[in-house]
Amino acid sequence: MGHARILNVAWVVLLTSAGAGLAAPAQKPDTITFASHRAIYDLKLASARGNRPVEAVRGRILYDFSGNECEGYALQFRQVSEIDAGEGVRMTTDMRATTWEDAAANAFRFNSQNYVDQKLKSSVDGRAERENAQVGVKLEKPEKKAFEITAQIIFPTDHMRRIILAAREGKTLLQGPVFDGSDNGQKVYDTLTVIGQPIEPSAAQPDDAAGKDEHLSKLRRWPVSISYFDKSKTEGDQLPVYGIKFELYENGVSRALALDYNDFVVSGTMTALETRPTKPCQ
Questions:
Q1: Ordered alpha helix ranges (H), 98-200
Q2: Cα–Cα dist 229/237, whole Å
Q3: How many structural domains does the chain have?
Q4: Which tens digits make up the pLDDT trace of 131-151?
Q5: pLDDT in tens, 74-128
Q6: How far apart are the C-alpha atoms of 163 and 245, rounded to whole Å?
Q7: Would 151 be classed as within a structural domain?
Q8: Which of 63, 145, 208, 226 has the fewest CB atoms within 10 Å, i.e. the most exposed one?
Q9: Is 9 contained in some domain?
Q10: 140 within some domain
Q11: Is 195 among the domain residues?
Q12: Are 173 and 17 in contact (CB under 8 A)?
C-alpha cells in the first residue's frame, strides 16, 4: 500500500531469497523513483472466520503520498470502516494519520488519531531519529516519553524501497523489524515479506483505476504479502497479528489490497488514482 501498512483501526485498522535479516540503511539508499499520487480504495468484506464472524464491512481508504529523495516523503492516510458484527452490533472506525520520512531513513515523524463512532479513542504524536547504535523516539502523545529502540529497525518508506529492490533482483523473501508509529507509538513489529513472480506490462491490464493509468501500464508489478508479528512475544509459535497483500508497481503504487485481521479479511479495490509530477531535486 504505497510504502506503509494499513494502520490499526479500533479492532486493529526486508533482503535475500533465504530471508536473512536487514542491515541498517546506508546514508545514501539506492534510488527508487516513488510516484507522488492520491489513491482511493473501496473496502468490503472478503471472508470471515472464527467463532464470531463479522457479517459485513464497507468503507474507504484515502492514500496521498508525495515527496522526493531530497525533501523526504510525506503521507496523508485515512481509513473509514463500518463493521457489522451481527446481532445488531455495528461500529464505525476512522483512522487518520500523517507521516514524514527523510530519504536516508534517518528521521521519521508520525501523527495519528483513531475515532470509534465519531469519538476520539486514541491519539499519537512523535518522532524518531537514528542516532549511531540506536533509534531515539520522542513522544508528545499519548504521553510525553523518550526511549530508544534498536538501530536495525526500518521506517515505512525505506521498507517499501527495500521490497522493490528485492523484487527487481528476483528475491522472494524479506525479513526485518519495522517501526511505523502505529498503536501507541511504541510498537515494533517483526515482518516477513513474500514477493511473487513479476507481472509484466504485457500481461492483462487490471480492471480498476490502476488499469486506466497510462504510465502504470508500462511498469512491472509484483504480488506482495507482508505479515506483521508482535516483536515483544518471543515464546512459542507465533501467528501474525495481521497481514496485508497487494500488487506493487515499481514506482510504489499499490492495487488489489487484502487486509487480513485474522478473524476476517477485507478487500480494497482502487476506484480512483491521481498521479502528480514528482518535484525534482533542486
A1: 156-168
A2: 11
A3: 1
A4: 878 999 999 999 999 999 988
A5: 999 999 999 998 878 899 999 999 999 999 999 999 999 999 999 999 999 999 9
A6: 13
A7: yes
A8: 145
A9: no
A10: yes
A11: yes
A12: yes
